[in-house]
Amino acid sequence: MTYRVLSAAVATLAFVMPLQAQQPFSSSVPADRETPREIERAQHYRLALDEFLVLVPIRLQDDIQADIDESSRDEARAKDEKLNAENLERLARDQLDAQKEEIDAIKARLKIAKNEDREADVAVLESDQKLAEGAKRLLEKRREMRRKEIDGWDTAARLAAATRKAAEFELELANARDQLRERGPHETGEGFRRLQRRVNEFEKRTLEAQKERAELRAKVAQKERDVVNSRLELLKTRSKIEAGG
Q1: Which pLDDT value is given to residue 185?
Q2: Disulfide check for 75: which of 105, 140, 160, 244 has CB 3.0–4.6 Å away?
Q3: Residue 37's Cα: distance from chain center in Å?
Q4: How far apart are CA 173 and CA 191, in angstroms?
Q5: Closest Cα to residue 73, out of 151, 164, 153?
Q6: R_g of the chain, CA atoms, integer Å
């Protein structure tokens, strides 16, 4: 029975203080309004508060809204970058298709030149084929790089959306905490308990959204490494071709 009373009292104290403060409780107690027993109970609340209640740190609503606005801009930018990468990937695909056709045409001419014993033409066409094959390898690497960029920007857009979602839940949590605080520390009844459940629910949703955000951050970092590695591979291929390899 004592544990249930303490838990309910702790739930009340978490939101009776101004949310603008970083500390979720006041450091002063009006002596003319509280009895020594109430002061002692408040001490218990303070000890239990951080461990049991404030799982999502209290932040100013303006700061949370700023995160929502920034994540919306990040998502829009990521989508624009993804669209640009898709256009470049299509360009690389079309160029690759054209290069394959050119190689097929060179091979056909080379076959005729060999059949006709035109050694000079054979030497020129074999050189052309080598250059064309090198260009094909470059285009293949470029297209692969564009695909990784598309994947990376898609993941970045998902991260921005998850960041906004987490902040939106956090803002709902802040509003629910404000409503609970405004009801006062001594109020009871179903309405008050409903507000407590609302606070708990939004805290749970916020934490789940923050977990999703953290997982996507790790994926974005991996996608960035993939893009950089793909660019290095393209550079290596280009250098090898330029060196005559």
Answers
A1: 57
A2: 160
A3: 49
A4: 17
A5: 164
A6: 32
